[in-house]
Amino acid sequence: MLRSSPGGLSAAEAERRIAEFGPNDVERVARRSPALALLGEFTHFFAVILWVAAGLAFAAAIAQPGSGMATLGAAIVGVIVVNAVFSFWQQHRAERALEALEQLLPPRVLALREGEPTELDARGLVPGDLILLDAGARVPADSRVIEAFGLRADNATLTGESVSIALDARACTAEEPLRAPNLVFAGTLVIAGHGRAVVFATAGMTEFSRIAGLAQRTRAGLSPLQREIVRVTRLVAMLSTGLGVAFFAVGQAIGLPFWSNVLFAIGIIVANVPEGLLPTITLALAMAAQRMARRNALVRHLPSVEALGAATVICTDKTGTLTQNRMEVFALHLHGVSVPVRGDGDLSALAPAHRAFFEACALCENLSERGRGTAHEWLGDPTEVAIVEMARRACPAPPQADRIDEIPFDSDRRRLSTLHRVRGELVLHCKGALESLLPLCEAVEEPSGIAPLDDARRRALVQAEADLGAQGLRVLAVAWRHVDPGEPREALERGLVLAGLIALEDPPRPEVPDALARCRVAGIRVVMVTGDHPRTALAIARQVGLVESDTPKMIPGDVLRKMSDAQLQLVLDEREVHFARLDADQKMRIVAAFQRKGEVVAVTGDGVNDAPALRLADIGVAMGISGTDAARAASDLVLADDNFATIVNAVEEGRAVFANTRKFLTYILTSNVPEIVPYLAFVLLRIPLPLTIVQILAVDLGTDLLPALALGAERGDHDAMARRPRRRDEPLLSRSLLLRAYGFLGLIEAAAALAAYGFVLHAGGWIWGEALAPGDPLYRRATTACLAAIVAMQVVNVLVCRSDRESIWRTGLGGNRLLLAGIAAELVLILLAVYSPWGQSLLGTASLGAEVWLLFVPLAAAMLALEELRKFFARRRAPRASHSR
């Protein structure tokens, strides 16, 4: 079919095929150019509204020089640029994901060309090439094994299954190609042996490229917080524009001069648009990301900080997340008795009675060593590493032994045999599956010595293996015998003495049971989605407490493949349902099914096969230690310790982010009302404009920013993980938040601001109806008083916004070092605005007397008292809100 030959392809044929099939690269999916992507961030709905406002400001500056409108226009353009660059940076992840995938393919490969081993650039491989495989090498293309000597491959990056595959050229391709014993795949690792294989798929035709294509084509949706921000900004932009147009029409109707009316309309728009919202959210998320980093959760995509807090389902991998991603001997079955040996304790007490067993474990291996002393490391199959390390704990000084011969492991034999000269005698050691060794054994070790292996003893051994296997353990048998000199090689594996059984596991992480219990209390469902064997997956699920019932539903990939999407969604209603032996596209199906049910889904993964599901999920969580670069690049969050418990800690931080976002949103929106009301008073009461547009920006982008950021750094509620997740459709701008900000706190602030404005005008002898020029000292002092009153009331507001129900006497000033710093910065900024020549020139302010500042004291006290009264009745009327402090 591939028209290859034992000597490989000729140079001419290779050139012809590379012209036909193309270079052996990861296939790239066409994407919008970075320039167009960046341009799109300047042209979305909210940006267009701000561009229009900036354009009108510049037009007004031309018509009325010195009005401060040019400064306003420049400030609005600055906001647009900052938001656009940040959004573009968030979206620029797909190319990095592709680069990470490409790094999994080896740059060079050894192939046969015209009968000679030739080192090639891996991009130059074509179907029909013969490649040479050795331990430690990455496979460059999908290939069929034609010669194998102890060859084993780790396909975990593609399958998620932690057990390596023994490769055999004589085996037939299995129904599941990724688990076929005669196939190797691009991007996987050869962990033992050597051999040859013929390439049958390169570039975009490989399984690796298929999964890479899924990861690239899968569109990562907006996080819950991003969706809410889009909704809020559109709502506020439409409201601002509508009010601006409406009041421009009113101004025209009552005869305002055109440019004064334009100034008025722009003021309404600017006062309603919370220009500082996106920068504040960005900074708050960045601070939350820093807190999460201290808890071993590294954030790659800032909105994911909050998204994890909204998670209702976590689809978790098994290996490395619920377990420690290492093989460990769990128990030994010796002399008919199972002995637990988990951990790194001393086993030397067992050695005298079981010397032959431990010597076989130490010597029957195909590992290589690197380093010495504490830096010593075994390289090879993790199962063999665990067995040898266990044997060294029992016999720290194994006997001197020379390896004479080896009969390698293969998928038919399912065992490895090594012949050693030990203490002057030839000894054969054998290790493998019990069903493979048992027919070769004639005796078994017992406390009284070596006994014949009769039917009863055989049944006892088979039952012991079944009991250990039912716990999800991998069970191997160990046997040995003395060999007479001159015995033929084909007769070595006969008349063996069975020394014992070894049960191995990937041990569960000790923190996981408690983390799962916290998830249950928090209303988060955890579903295992793994590539491992169903029996192993179920056993681990029981050990960590993920499965509690006697009849859980464990669905393997071959069963899932036969289900329709409707059937899958119905199955997900089961209380305990988990999935095993899954492919990459099946993990995506499960994530999509949960999302169709309205769930916010977090997915954990570490392999290339996990990358598509990580991209599709509301939040993708990759492993930092065991994870591939491809998984990390496709993720939103990376666990520095690969620990499921870290995800639960991150959920707690995420829930705090949403609650804190509501807090500073209340704080920011409250100041919109005292910024709008002066413009209404200007039109309806025919008084001089109490607040200029530049002064509005001084609040939105100046004094409000640090206190809002301090609210974003509030600690999570102590009972945050005792509540159910918020609904997927629960709005950030709830009715109660809007009523509190606009209908209560904002009106109080507006009344205080106009009171301060009127106080200064009255004290200065102003007469109702009298016009004041923008440069009039009295007008400048009056607008300054209005601005200072808003800032003073915002100082009280930041304190009351720490909770929508708890009294300020309970929340106090402690627990948030940034809060006092934010208030101090707010007061410093207003003092600079009022008294510094620079502030007076930029904002059109003037110095205020002590009597004006004293006026703010009763006004602030009144706001505090009224809000405390509202909170008192709120606590009496209903229980504490489920998602706010």
Q: How would you describe this structure to a colleague?
A:
By secondary structure, the protein is an alpha+beta fold. It folds into four domains: 11-26 and 100-217, Calcium-transporting ATPase, cytoplasmic transduction domain A; 231-292 and 657-716 and 731-877, Calcium-transporting ATPase, transmembrane domain (Up-down Bundle), CATH 1.20.1110.10; 312-324 and 509-617, 3-Layer(aba) Sandwich (Rossmann fold), CATH 3.40.50; 328-505, 3-Layer(aba) Sandwich (Calcium-transporting ATPase, cytoplasmic domain N). 48% of the residues lie in helices and 17% in strands. The chain has 32 helices and 26 strands. The strands form five sheets. Strands 10, 11, 14, 15, 16, 17, 18, 19 and 20 form a nine-stranded mixed sheet that branches. A hairpin with a 2-residue loop joins β1 (108-113) and β2 (116-121). α3 runs antiparallel to α4 (69-91). It is elongated. 49% of the residues are buried.
The CATH homologous superfamily of the largest domain corresponds to Calcium-transporting ATPase, transmembrane domain
- Give the % helix: 40-55%
The main β sheet shows up as: 9 strands, mixed
Q: How many beta-strand elements?
A: 26
Strand content: 15-25%
